[in-house]
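job 3f2a | input accepted
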Amino acid sequence: MIDTMWTPELLEGPAPKFRALADAIGRAIASGGLAPGDQLPPVRDLAWRLKISPGAVARGYKLAIERGQLSAGVGRGTFVRASDAPEAAGPRPAGPDSAPPAPPHASWLEMANNCVPEVGQDAEIRKAMIKLASDPRSALRLTTYGGRDWDFAERETYARWISEVAGMEASPDRLIITSGAQQALHIALRTAVPTRDGVVLTGVLSHPGFVEMTTMLGLRTEPVAMDDQGVIPAAFDEACRRHSPDAIILTPTYHNPTASVLPVRRRVEISAIAQARGVAVIEDDVYGWLESSHPPHFAQLYPEGSYYIAGISKCLAAGLRVGGLIAPQHKAAAAARCLRVLNYHTSTPMTALLAEMISSGAADRILRAVRAEAAARAVLARETLGQWGLRAPDAANFAWLPLGAKWRSNDFAMRALNAGVRVAVDESYCLPRHAAPDHLRGVRLAFGPAPDREILAEGLGRLKSILQEGPAASAMIS
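job 3f2a | predicted structure (478 res):
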């Protein structure tokens, strides 16, 4: 249970303050910022913090109570209402990829936090670890720091695999092995954005890790309009004119959360705009590895200004914190220096383990199995929810369920939570002080956490029932 210091961020817009507060409460519950049983601040305390009237706070609390999200008692305070699902059925709601998935349970289904499905990775990884530990010739190098070229063999192996699997020509001289894709993003931003007050663009819906990283680095993040195909080139050009950005972060293949794939024509147009305006492009390709055919990467279209980020958490195993960054040729040395400042070098047992798995064929075997399982789960999802416009590509391992104007995404998420299913809402992917546009209202459904297809089918069936019932009167937008 959290204390009463919780302070929401009210979205700007025409809605009255009390409704904005009630909506913020719903977002916090759906994303995991507030859990069942958490106590909200006293009315006057929150009014003082938000610089609004106590009456507005009281009306916001009342509306949230009417929506079934809060409960209150005289002299007791205001609390997040406990879910109708048994408390033992699973943990608190959570935002996308922000916490470990809930343990498998007959009545609790995790579909918010994504991971790769279980396809026998543990056995393959364990076998590779045993081989490394028992072979005195293995390159663990545990007693020394080493230098820039001491991991050249591992970089060469990883670069070859990136070229084969991702269709991205990679040179070991420019490849930096990082502790996961998030660190690769950190290095790319540090290298591409020269000042602390720089500006970074990203889609109006984007992975929360992007915004968290830019905020931590003191950068300003501005949204770029999207449609069902991804970022709109004309909107990117307009954002460049208005904000003079240093960089744009894109996930062009299986955008998270909408699962869209940016068409080749748009990739070419965005590359030309970025080149003309001197804007760096940072491409996050962690989901693209699940796709067997590859549209051109930005680093191929605009090599002098593009950064390519690879990772294995979405295609092999999340616990192997290894990623890769390919920086433009003239920025490669600066990126390598940044890695040395952050942690000198990536853990040698991890880089050696990945190299061993690639060389032995284990990485390819896991990847093929993950692709096949992801495709089977996508078929299951489309068969169950396809009539509601579900976007579930075979290789994405997650889906986007558009909700349109009839549903509030937080209301749908609460209905799902009460049915024992946890999903990720559109507001979790919005930039601060921005809301999801009507055409991008929806929830993301993660397929990986389900232990098997039978349990996934059960969760999809519960969501189907909610959609068939339709939004409750209190959830409809007037």
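job 3f2a | The radius of gyration is 23 Å.
job 3f2a | closed
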